[in-house]
Amino acid sequence: LTTVRGNLLTNAVGITIDVDGNFLGQLDDDINSNLTITIPKSSVSPLSYKFRGNIANGVTINFVDEDSAFPYDGTISIIVDKATGAKFEANLAGAGGINNGATIVNLYGTIGDFTVIAKEVNIHGVVTGTLNATTWGNTLNIKQGAVVKDLNIIEGYADIAGSVTGNLVVNATTAVEVVITYGAVNVANINAGSNGKILWRVANTTELRSALAYPAAYNRGVVMAADCYYNAGTPGAGGNIDQQSAFIIAKSDAEQAIRDYTGYIFDGGGHTLSGSATNQVLICYTNDAIIRNVVITSNGLNMNGLTIHRSTGVKLNNVSSINNGKAGVIIN
How many whole angstroms separate alpha carbon 294 and alpha carbon 309? Predict the structure, then answer.
């Protein structure tokens, strides 16, 4: 069970309690002053906190462990009705640092700013201000339909299916992958920093070809969510670089000594990549690329499946190149 501590003298707050006087997780009335919710180390997962009244603009709701040496290691769901200008904070890292904490935080409803440190964070609602998220190697999930104005990824892997309407900034001190559903974030608003690797989740051929062409500063890979086919040209007919391949990894690296897209990730997600072109379905022009989880085929046309061109250190993982009229894989 959980206790509530805070200055509530400015208003009447309805609190749901049990027969022993312990807070059960629902505040019914308005909150006009800051509130700290302390989570005892003996709490049993999952915990659910429901805020049914209006939380005034500028109010801060803070979740903390009673004893940081023994942090709560379960799931917390925060459910909010009216808090569009309120700030929520949850530092649940534990005394030994974030890797010592194992809390999963779920947010439902609409709030203002949200600063959270936890093992995993799932945003199902709306953050009208800035979301500052630290998950240290675990996951921030912005679910489909969720909206965040500005997003600051301090540490941790992120998967963004919902919308980020403002800036997305990666301030991680270690390399992290941020997977973004195509169209969820304006590419002009992305600052990946020195350690952010932005991967685009694409649902069709148009999205895939567009994402492959994004500049390297905010394009470190793609993840296919469906089969993709493109007709770039007639096999054996010759043509320019765009006609030679249906899909191109790191086109601008083709003739450069210094490769901008080094380490690029092409993840097929278990789907099939196919097409028609003068030479091959897929070509890679950069060093140390990772091509994984994809089936490549020309469907019997007189062309190659995959070509690795003047690139070193390229890794293939769970890749099949089948039913090609010429070679399955070419390295030149």
Answer: 19
